[in-house]
Amino acid sequence: MRSLNLSLGDRSYPILIGGGLLGRGDLIFPYLRSPRIALVSNTVVAPLYLDLLAGGLEKVGVGMTPVILPDGEAHKTWESLNLIYDALLAARCDRSTTVVALGGGVIGDLAGFAAATYQRGVPFIQIPTTLLSQVDSSVGGKTGINHPRGKNMIGAFWQPKLVLADTDTLKTLPDRELSAGLAEVIKYGLIGDLPFLAWLESNMAGLLARDGELLAHAIEHSCANKAEVVAADEFETAKEGGRALLNLGHTFGHAIEAGAGYGTWLHGEAVAAGTMMAVELSRRMGWLQSTDADRVRRLMEAAGLPVRGPDLGVARYLELMSHDKKVIAGNLRLVLLKALGEAVTCNDAPQEKIAAAIEHCCRA
Q: What gap in Å lies between CA 328 and CA 118, rounded to an integer?
């Protein structure tokens, strides 16, 4: 088992990574306020892993109230959030009850937002079961739901007490979901870790083949990168750089998700296409060379990811991007690349260059 820590003072928490962890109730018990949890999962993950988790918790005397939601990004809504509240209230869960998320990013975000708001805040544990959630969404405390006008526009910062990433869950992950997770892994290399980017180029075939050691290394390295950034800028308030750099490709990607209809594109797929738009804009800003853009494109393609976005029309992209959370005082703040491995925030990219980058990277 690999272990690292996200340092946030008295709200610090461990991230445990390895195989065979789901049945280890002894790893979870020390982080519970009482021997009772509310387990939030979905109709795909629960049949695979709920019994294993419940069995491990039963061995240490922990009871469970299961809350099983529909699967998919399209259900990251107020309606699903209310299903969690209904279950918590029906079971008379109190402030000592820990909400546990068992699933991917959608379940983690929903369960985390419910934990942040139920009785003004109850403890929360993340047990991510997809590569994307293990390397990104389970770490850092961002929770929320989608709105038709924008992704993750309603939510809260609410840090978990523990992140438990069992790499065995990746064995049942569909190929498309595995590739989607690799988009976020690649992001860490692009924004600030060029040696890791080179490692990914050398080991992408092994990652796609689900080599356990390679996956564990990629997850640990990604989480370590994110933990460092979050510890320095937890609430994304830095005027330049900081936690916002983790959003490389996300402003374009969120527009793809909203414009195409939530669930049509997986989050990682949209981030991949959005990253190519950010790379192309960085090239048009004079910061990257064509060879750099080609290198990123080859890596995305090797990971089985899309490198072109849907043809929503430039005007529609710009309209959706104007609702992004990173808009400050009417100015769109984008994450771009001064060089591969060097990300920056930019709030003065000319609109005509943004439009040209989108047009260049859209599917005809």
A: 30
Any idea where the domains of the chain sit in the sequence? 2-171, 175-360
Average pLDDT over residues 285-289: 98
User: pLDDT digit string (tens) for 106-115?
Assistant: 999 999 999 9
CATH classification number, 175-360, choose in 3.40.1160.10, 1.20.1090.10, 3.40.50.300, 1.10.10.10: 1.20.1090.10
Name which CATH class applies to 2-171.
Answer: alpha beta
**Distance of CA 241 to CAs 96, 105, 217, 224, 342, Å?**
37, 24, 26, 18, 10
Judged by phi (left if over 0) then psi (alpha if -120 to 50, else beta), residue 263 lies in: left
Q: What is the CA radius of gyration of the chain?
A: 20
Tokens of 225: 């990168």
Task: Say whether pTM exceeds 0.90.
Answer: yes
Are 121 and 208 spatial neighbours (Cβ–Cβ below 8 Å)?
Answer: no
List the catalytic residues.
120, 142, 184, 226, 240, 243, 247, 250, 254, 267
pLDDT for res 364: 45
